[in-house]
């Protein structure tokens, strides 16, 4: 059977996973009466809830005697470690672009990696049936993007199609028949080259491990593309690290190939195909699995370095251990090491005391997803404010810069530009009308300046703005950037918050807690309306007397509290604060102070 390997690239919410659903349906991968969930490739709970692809996954379809292996790539730059490895498995890419929004920052990030590998893209303009679609403008923007990213003449001469993933059609012309995806299938078969590895089927077996998974019955599973030779189930092979060190020899217990949404056991893997192997004990991502006669490892794609670090510690608050079962530092360390093994974009280091761990990664979203997965597994953690990783270059301190692309209503553009280019030390790159009363702003902003900015941005734009960010490069250190301006309200008592007390505190600022919620000394229960921190008593009830009131008492009417999401909480805190994360709660608190410091702080705050 003929073989093609492709990856699908798209920005968050441009319809990539929905299009893959339709490709699977129209290729006959499902039975007619088979119940299939919407966005079938989003197999993990967090992906379904957030509507984003976090883990790269493969599937395969058959089209007129050609097997097409399709790899669904993450759309967010924070998960770029997945993208860089995945693109080394494929021979072509389908770039999916929303016909209304045009190419966005995350598209730019993944596309630059694909073009650098020499892949020739197919451009699909999706959602052309929407009323605000401008496919011609979007197509021009894609061409300009490719030119800016240094595409060669072959890559600039890309074929394009007009499509609606939800409606299940793609045509070469905008006013085509709009019936099915047959034209897209044919274009993939004709445009994407056969894997060059097919020519090396008679050589010794070798395969580069790209992703690591686990199965309760099979143990560790490594997935990758077979670079040369053939492999039969039961054969003995070896694993070699990137630097040429021999890790282990093992017997391949099972070979699994992607067929539709599932994996099917096969007897033999051949060069060019994407397969999963089971049976290894130590081999991991970026290792070469090869025949015993092979001495040299395959070249692994270098991974961009992490840009932020967050400290994960044990939860030592008074409410520790009530929700989660996994609270010891040893258990947390084992879980983080397991994550670092399968996710090469994450680095783990012990802190001097050994009770906490520094986790380095690509961005707040990547950290948020890791923490969210851990809390659902029963872990309790305390998380520090993200710190940007600096590096020295020619005796100069360099810091990471991100490209922020913002779509905002015209009336709020001034406030956004003032914040980004003023206090946050950004540089305005481009500003142009985006239609429908909106302005598109592109700015290069230090990563430090964007930590904690999203909440402020939503306030400034009345919730209507859209902010996308992607790593751009390194720049000389730009000096101090002020953090959060407002102080916080800190509980001075342990117990359950009382509605009457919260009602009296509302004039002091906005609340983060509800009545009957457990609080403790040092816990942050709200944001102060002024710049200083203030210790308050949320347990203070109304004094009762034996004198009847002349009228009815005013009913206590509370403003609903501000509920921070995990990423918002991590970005909100200052350096002397922590986020307490348990399976059932997200709380903010001050780092522990000794009693004398606490009294001094209380006196200073009145």
From TrEMBL:
Q: Which reaction does it catalyse?
A: GTP + H2O = GDP + phosphate + H(+)
For this UniProt entry, what is the primary localization, expressed as one broad class? cytoplasm
Q: One of this protein's GO BP terms?
A: ribosomal large subunit assembly
Tell me where in this chain the Tr-type G domain is found: 1-196
EC number(s) for this protein? 3.6.5.-
In terms of Pfam families, this protein maps to:
BipA_C, EFG_C, GTP_EFTU, GTP_EFTU_D2
Q: Quote the record's binding site residues for GTP.
A: 13-18, 126-129
**Which key words tag this protein in UniProt?**
Cytoplasm, GTP-binding, Hydrolase, Nucleotide-binding, Ribosome biogenesis, RNA-binding, rRNA-binding, tRNA-binding
**Where does this protein reside within or beyond the cell?**
Cytoplasm
Q: Name one GO molecular function term.
A: tRNA binding
Q: Could you name the Gene Ontology cellular component terms for this entry?
A: cytosol; ribonucleoprotein complex
UniProt-listed PROSITE patterns: G_TR_1, G_TR_2
Q: Which CDD domains match?
A: BipA_III, BipA_TypA_C, BipA_TypA_II, TypA_BipA
Q: Which domain of life is it from?
A: Bacteria
Give the UniProt family note: Belongs to the TRAFAC class translation factor GTPase superfamily. Classic translation factor GTPase family. BipA subfamily.
Function, as annotated: A 50S ribosomal subunit assembly protein with GTPase activity, required for 50S subunit assembly at low temperatures, may also play a role in translation. Binds GTP and analogs. Binds the 70S ribosome between the 30S and 50S subunits, in a similar position as ribosome-bound EF-G; it contacts a number of ribosomal proteins, both rRNAs and the A-site tRNA.
Q: What quaternary arrangement does the UniProt entry report?
A: Monomer.
- The protein in question is named Large ribosomal subunit assembly factor BipA
Organism listed in the record = Maritimibacter harenae
